Amino acid sequence: MQALIALILGAVEGITEFLPVSSTGHLLLLGHFLGFESAGRTFEVVIQLGAILALLLVWSGRLFTILRDAPHDPRARRLVAAVLLAFLPAAVIGVIAHPIIKTVLFETPMLIAVMLILGGFVLIYVDKMTLTPRYQETEDIPILTAIVIGFVQCLAMIPGTSRSGATIVGALLMGVSKRAAAEFSFFLSMPTMMGAVAYDIYKTRDMLDWSATWLIVIGFVSAFVSAALVVRWLLGFVSRRGYALFGWWRIVVGTLALIGLSLGA
C-alpha cells in the first residue's frame, strides 16, 4: 500500500510541478488525506529532483544551444542574465522565511486549499484579460521585467499559490506572450527548484529519514516520467488554449479539500 501511495504522490508531483496549479499544495493535501507524511518531509523534498531532472533532460538541447551561444549572442546572454537575476529574490526571501514556511505554512491544509481557490480565480481572470504581448520570445524579456517576475514568484512560498502560476501570471501582466510566459517559468524553475531543494535538505538534515529509500526511489521515478510528459505537452497546449482550464482545476481541488477538511478528514 505504501508503494502505491508513493507511486501516486510521485506522479502528482511530476504532473503538477510545471503546471500553474501548485505541486506543493497538491502533494501536501493528498498526503494529508492519505495519511502519508515522511519525517523531515524527506520524500516530498527529494522526489522534486525527479521533476527537475526530467526538465533538464527534455530541454537539454535548448539549454545547450543557449549556453553555447551566450558568449557571442546578446539575446541568449540576456536570457541567462534574466533568469539568474529573477532567481535572486526567491533565494534571499526563501532563506529568511524558511522557518515560517516549513513549520507554519506547510502544516496548514486549510490555508493551502484557500490559496488554491484564490489562485484559480486569479488565473482565470488574467487569462481572459485582453493583453497585447510585447515580448513573444523568452529571449526578448528585458532584465527589469524578469526581476519583477522574480519578485512575483516569491508569492509561491505560500503553499497552494504555485510557483509556476505566480511566475506565469506575473509574466502575462508584464506583457509576455502565453507561450513565452510558460517557457520563462521553466527556465526560472531550474535554479529556483534546485536551490530550494538543496537548502531544504541542508536545513532539515538532522530530521531526514532515509529508512524508506525504496519509497523515495518509486516516487522519484514516477515524478521523472510524469514530468517529462507534461513538459513536452504544456507549451503547445497553452499556446492554443491558455490557462483558464488550470484555474478551474485549482478551484475544484481547493473546494473538495475544504469540504474534506470541514468533515474532519
Automatic annotation (TrEMBL):
EC number per UniProt: 3.6.1.27
Record's GO cellular component terms: plasma membrane
Gene Ontology molecular function: any one: undecaprenyl-diphosphatase activity
GO biological process terms held by the UniProt record: cell wall organization; peptidoglycan biosynthetic process; regulation of cell shape; response to antibiotic
Keyword set includes Hydrolase: yes
Its membrane topology: Multi-pass membrane protein
Something else known: Bacitracin is thought to be involved in the inhibition of peptidoglycan synthesis by sequestering undecaprenyl diphosphate, thereby reducing the pool of lipid carrier available.
HAMAP family on file: Undec_diphosphatase
Role, per record: Catalyzes the dephosphorylation of undecaprenyl diphosphate (UPP). Confers resistance to bacitracin.
Name under which the protein is recorded: Undecaprenyl-diphosphatase
Protein source organism: Pseudoroseicyclus aestuarii
Phylogenetic lineage: Bacteria, Pseudomonadati, Pseudomonadota, Alphaproteobacteria, Rhodobacterales
